[in-house]
Design a protein that fits this description.
The chain has 178 residues and is an alpha/beta fold. It is built from eight helices and seven strands; from the N terminus they run H-E-H-E-H-E-H-E-H-E-H-H-E-H-E. Helix content is 50%, strand content 20%. A seven-stranded parallel beta sheet has the order 4-3-2-5-6-1-7, with helices on both faces. Helix 4 links the parallel strand 3 and strand 4.
């Protein structure tokens, strides 16, 4: 699976990776490692993992943290005023789509990443219906294409996600099921 993602990113700009629900924690960590080994700068947009525990886990896994910058949409739902971090922009919540889009654009303009990892569309579906999520994904992929940046979306393979996954097949250059 990880080798397939690496190879497909050589040929495709937009990709969705669909994880079985029970395999998500270990497989997302593998995806992060392989991306960190193969790209110079990565913007990690986290909708479901708080910045500090995410960063600690990545460090424990031996990921080169100098390659990562973060847009964290989860921490402010738990901590009103998180401590500032040089490599992270906090967004108020995963349903603040305009704020998230602005934070992503700002991160791109400040750091010029090679790739954006968007984790996870399943979390977005907790807050938005599949049509709104699809419109947001379409807008975000167009923005990344205009910047010449590759983007990888992650999503769980669940019943709730099925309408969105059907739409991803139309929007993405490649969809991979793990």
């Amino acid at each position: 699976m990880v080798l397939e993602i690496k190879n497909e990113l050589l040929q495709n700009s937009t990709m969705a990776v669909i994880f079985p629900v029970g395999d998500y924690p270990s497989q997302i960590n593998e995806v992060v490692k392989i991306l960190g080994e193969n790209y110079g700068k990565i913007l990690y947009v986290s909708l479901n993992r708080l910045y500090n525990p995410l960063k600690r886990k990545m460090q424990q896994d031996g990921v080169d943290m100098t390659k990562f910058i973060f847009v964290d949409c989860a921490t402010k739902t738990a901590v009103a005023n998180p401590p500032e971090a040089q490599d992270c922009i906090y967004v108020s919540s995963p349903d603040a789509l305009t704020e998230m889009s602005i934070a992503i654009t700002k991160s791109i303009q400040n750091s010029y990443p090679d790739l954006v990892l968007f984790d996870s569309l399943s979390t977005l579906l907790i807050y938005e219906n599949p049509n709104v999520a699809t419109q947001f994904i379409h807008s975000l992929t167009n923005k990344m294409n205009s910047f010449g940046i590759k983007i990888v979306f992650t999503v769980l393979d669940g019943e709730k996600e099925k309408p969105l996954i059907d739409n991803l097949n139309m929007l993405m250059d490649k969809v991979i099921r793990t």
